[in-house]
Amino acid sequence: MMDRNLKKAADRKLINLCSEIARPSGFGNRVRLFHRLSQVSPFPHLVGFSGLPSYEIYAEKRALISSDQNFLLRILYDQLSGRLEAHLLHPLEHKYRYAFIVLDSLNREFLTDHHGWATLDQFDDDRWLYSVYVSPPGAIFELKPGGQPVQIYAGESLKDCQLKTEFFSVGPQSTLKVQAVNLPESVEIKRMVLVIDGEETLIAVPRKDLAFYELPEGACCLRIYLYE
Amino acid sequence: MGEERKLLLKLLYIINNNYTESDLEDLIRSMVSLLLPLIRKQSGLYLKLAGYQPQDIALLTVSTLFIRNRQGRFPVLEKLFNWKIVEKFMVASEVDFKRYLKNILARRLKQTFYYLSSEIRPERTKIKREILYALKKLPGCRINKEKGRTLVVIRPDYEGKVEPETLTEDQSDRLLEICLNRGLGGLQVPRFFKRLVEVLSGQQLVAEVSLNSLLEVYIETQRNYLLAEFGNGPVNWARPETDTSCQELSIWMEELRARNILLLNRYLARNKIAEKDREAYLKALNDLLQDWQEGGQEKPLFAYLKKYSPEISPEEYRKEKRKILEYLVKTSRDFLKVKLREQQIASGGI
Question: Which of A130, A211, A212, B243 has the fewest CB atoms within 10 Å, i.e. is most exposed?
Fold first, then answer.
């Protein structure tokens, strides 16, 4: 009986890790999005944001909005690839940059980039649109060479949170150890995202608020995003 | 199809970004089950006191392989199991694949222990390393290794012609006195030893002591400083969060002490030891237990016993006492292992 209980407890930890890796996290800080009841624009010029190809390949498919009307998620259809793209907008940049878009019904999550863009996938129907959430980072830290992590943004619950970082060299590869400390008891870090020089993005599922990242050569400016 | 072949296929699905949650679960489960025996071999009281269960270490090791990028791919895993490697194993024997996987995991585990070393390495060992590092950088300090002992010679430059007095191992109390009187408490390791060299130079002294004695001097100075600074009560220090509470540990230690008294009484009843030896063994064991709680055994067992039985020679120890002391230490260690194991089972850690 005892052995069975032990096995169950061990299995639970394992299954938790697997589901955290494979499924979207049950983010504590998430905002539900609802359909915006206005006519969506089929015209690409209304998509109007920087960095997009100038030719007309996008058309707005859906628009979703948060109840406080601050988050706007535009779902665009790429007619060339047949894929859906998402563009998240918010008046504050730390809300749309590197935010997770969670499609609950499909068990999928997507991370937006610096511009609030995320490439979704090809979905057969529109069922996934019924439960869409956004989880913006709870805290952002910047780590420059030779320096200590500096908090550049923190939400209310993570305002006392600090990061302990350590670099290790294993052969030519260097590894960054990141540990979130000073967390309130009720807060658990579900994801840690490392953005390397604004280009490469690595998403970790931390264990004991700890993650190890293998850095590419020449990594310089690092930003670490924490998600509750 | 063999288990390894299935595992390889699952790995293939994951690398191709075409996996299900159950593929991932099977792969992680296999990795964890390969890692756990390796971790248990290495896990001891320190690991436990640092708040890590073997399963945590296994999951931490595995989770580094499953760091995703924005495209949902696992770059580390894909680097370790690239197409060429996977193709090779598709035609090779399953045993080869298992061996390769095991080697990779063992290497990653070693790295995890390295990354966690600042948390799971005993505090005293950490200080010892810092002392060594600081001494290597200080002019006038020399480190010699002799018969497994690290001897430190602090010989500052003197302007006078008088031969300086040498403080040897037996005079480490005087070294401590100097540190306390000169207010070296509260200084971090590099500054502490820099100041110590200056003080010794001023007093025309040379120190030739073991690294362990220097460590004791440093710790004792800091302890005294803290006691003086924050009142006379015991100094509270924050033990890392762990499943083994301090209270639980103290209870075990008390049980262990009672057990050792019982064992020594038996030796006494059989005339295998004298009454004064019994006391010396007991005190030596108590010191050892204290060191275990504070980070680990600090000196040879002989040194523990010699402190309470100063007349004992190394030959005498080897001939008569070592066997008894080693037996008592072994049973004490086994007792703690059993307790930790029971506690681990009770908390569902395995």
Answer: A130
State how far the alpha carbon of B135 is from the alpha carbons of A55, B178, B197, B214, in Å. Answer: 67, 18, 10, 11
Among A20-24, A126-130, A194-198, B333-337, the range of highest mean pLDDT? A194-198
Distances, alpha carbon A131 to alpha carbons A37, A100, A104, in Å: 16, 14, 6
**In the predicted model, what is the mean pLDDT of chain B?**
79
ipTM: 0.80
To test the contact with chain B by mutation, choose from A2, A19, A21 the residue with the greatest count of B C-beta atoms within 10 A, namely: A21
Q: Do B62 and A6 touch (CB under 8 A)?
A: no
Cβ of B59 and A17 within 8 Å? Answer: yes
DSSP conformational letter for A156: G
Q: How far apart are CA A111 and CA A190, in angstroms?
A: 14
Residues of chain A with Cβ-Cβ distance to B114 below 8 Å are 168, 170
A53, A38 Cβ separation under 8 angstroms: no
Q: For chain A, which residues make up each domain, given as ranges?
A: 31-135, 139-227
The Cα–Cα gap between A193 and B299 comes to 45
Q: Could you report the per-residue pLDDT of B68-114, keeping only the tens digit for each?
A: 888 888 888 888 888 788 778 877 777 888 888 888 888 888 888 88
A143 three-class SS: strand
Contacts of B329 (CB under 8 A, 6+ apart): B285, B288, B301
Report the predicted TM-score, pTM, of the whole model to 2 decimal places.
0.61
Confidence band, pLDDT 50/70/90 cuts, at residue A54? very low
Please check the confidence at residue B223 and state whether its pLDDT lies above 80: no
Q: What is the pLDDT of residues A108-146, one digit of tens each?
A: 888 999 899 888 877 766 777 778 899 999 999 998 877
Asked if the Cβ–Cβ distance from A18 to B111 is below 8 Å, we say no
Which chain A residues are within 8 Å of B120, Cβ to Cβ?
none
Nearest alpha-carbon partner for A11 in B27, B349, B66, B10? B349
Query: Mind giving me the DSSP string for B131-181?
Result: HHHHHHHSTTEEEEEETTEEEEEE-----SSSPPEEE-GGGHHHHHHHHHH
Coil vs helix vs strand at A200: strand
Q: Shortest Cα distance from B73 to chain A (angstroms)?
A: 10
Contact of B55 with chain A, judged by CB distance below 8 Å, is answered with yes
Within 8 A of A17 by CB-CB distance, chain B residues are 28, 59, 62-63
- The CA distances from residue A213 to A182, B103, B131, B226, B340, in Å, are 21, 20, 30, 38, 32
Tokens 């878009």, residue located: A101
Q: How far is the alpha carbon of A125 from chain B, nearest alpha carbon, in Å?
A: 20
Give the dihedral of Cα atoms A58, A61, A67, A72; nearest 10 deg. 0
Inter-chain CB pairs, A–B, below 8 Å? 91
